[in-house]
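Amino Acid Chain and Its Fold in Token Form
===========================================
What this section holds: a protein sequence and its matching fold, both as plain text.
Structure line: whole-number tokens from a learned vocabulary of local backbone shapes, matched to residues.
Purpose: to set a sequence beside its fold so the mapping can be learned.
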Amino acid sequence: MSEKIEKLFKNALEQVSVEPPSRVWEGINSHFAMKQRRMRRIYTYSGVAAAVLLLFCVGYFMQNQHANIYTPSSIVALNFDNNQDSNKILAFTSTSHSIPEIKKRIVQYSNKNLVPVPTSTSVWEGLENEQPEGDLKNNAIRSEFIPLVNQSAIENQRKYTELLEGKSSTPVKTTKVKSENEAKIFSVGGYISPGYSSGNYRTSGSNTRSAQYESSQMSGILNIGGGLTFAVKPTKRISIETGLGYSRLGQKTDDAQVYVPSGDMVSYNANTHAYTPLGSVKNKATATVSTPENFISLKGEQDKEGSIEQQFDAIEIPLIFRYHLNDNKVRFSVLGGFGASFMVRNHTYVNYNGKKEFMGEAEDIRTFNISTNIGFGIEYPITKSIAIKLEPGFKYYLQSLSKSEFIDFKPYSFTFSTGIGINF
């Protein structure tokens, strides 16, 4: 009977279907999603671990390769005959380590890898052999030779080994790297210097001859000079200069009365002293001079209007300090210093009617004087060692040109020097 009941329920429920609630499916889906996330984490961590392991293996492999690179042994200097050519190419058998085959991969070295290996001198005895010409042309590296080693290389290796071991008595020479401008600390040059010269004039009334002239009558003269210079540069911006120069200074006195004898008449001052603003001159000219006031009672057909020109040439030795204001291609500088002047020429002329006659030399003129110099320099390079220089300047003499206590004439000059400088 139980079988009939079972069959009855089976037939009745065979066509019946019951849909599960939605929360059941949600639970199933969440379960699978969590499982997938766990699997992704596992894959990710596994990949990172594999990459780290791979990098570690590569680094370990490269370290072993680096440790196995052959380091040359210290080469011991051999006793060579003095007559032997020091540039002779030698070949030496290497130590028990052979030179490895050159690979395309290049490994960078540091100082800590260069460790000298002591080698007995007996290893190298009798190993001096000329390398055959055929071997020199052979590109292949032979394991039993260290090619291209000469006596100089052996000596350098020996000194290097002693230095590493602290046994070297030879001081190590180091060369300081200098810029181009710093390396060239000397300079020579030449210049020409056109200018204008005059002076401050003052006279005492005690000297009636000199008091005949006034400073308002005096004017300057144009001149030209030149010379050579030598400079040393103790620092990058400062230079000390000296040299040898030639300059002219002087003055011109206008409104002077010139007495010119007519015919065979000889001037009453011929071969006697004529008086100028800077002292008396033993007259060698036909004419003589004085101020209009002195000749007012003697004026006649022989009297002419003229001027007196006095020129003094000097050899100068300057001592100049220059400071460079910048380091550009065009360099500017300021300068100042002193100069020693040695008078080498003293001429006085009288000018009248378009003529210029030499009268003679002024008396009581100093042969040595001191001057001060200031200026502004411009320097333009045309090559690495040669530069064009332009230099306006001013020079003032500290002592009177005349030694007379009644005459005070201190010359000054404005100059414009142009020249070249050669640095070395």
Observations:
- The chain has a mean pLDDT of 75.
- Residues 90-165 form one domain.
- The longest helix spans residues 22-67.
- The chain is about 20% helix and 40% strand.
